[in-house]
């Protein structure tokens, strides 16, 4: 009983919390659904803010020019977040290049990045503030879209595990993170 081969420690006082070392299939399913719900909320907020911005721009242009009817040249696809993703192929390729590691840090530039030559930077420099002002959204949404991958863009390894410095393979199950159902943990250091 007290030798080198003693059984699992018995419960002396209080609750014994045993967490399994890996996620079961139903827990993985619920985790994927939670990730998709967060993605959906971000898309809905972005779409609503962009539509409100487009409406305020349309009312200010009609009041300024005082023309009775003015058709918008942008289609419904151009006003929604998903439609803009479909229309802009260059932004998709730049965003996919970011997904394998960390995104830009706070205050860094958003894709597409300017090209660096011997004469300096060539191209448009965009920060989160510029992107939010142009799209009519807020900086937090632009930062989220630039940093965080969507659920379908994530590799399974990043969905279900996270980087842990002191673990054996530098990874541990995402369910070991405290409050893991309420915290978005989607980014890991590159190479891990």
Automatic annotation (TrEMBL):
Coiled coil: none annotated. Residues 56-118 are annotated as: Disordered. GO terms for cellular component: mitochondrial large ribosomal subunit. It comes from the Eukaryota. Pfam families: L31. Residues 71-95 have a biased composition (Polar residues). One of its GO terms (molecular function) is structural constituent of ribosome. Residues 56-70 have a biased composition (Low complexity). PANTHER family: 54S RIBOSOMAL PROTEIN L31, MITOCHONDRIAL (PTHR28271), LARGE RIBOSOMAL SUBUNIT PROTEIN ML60 (PTHR28271:SF1). This is 54S ribosomal protein L31, mitochondrial. It comes from Elsinoe australis.
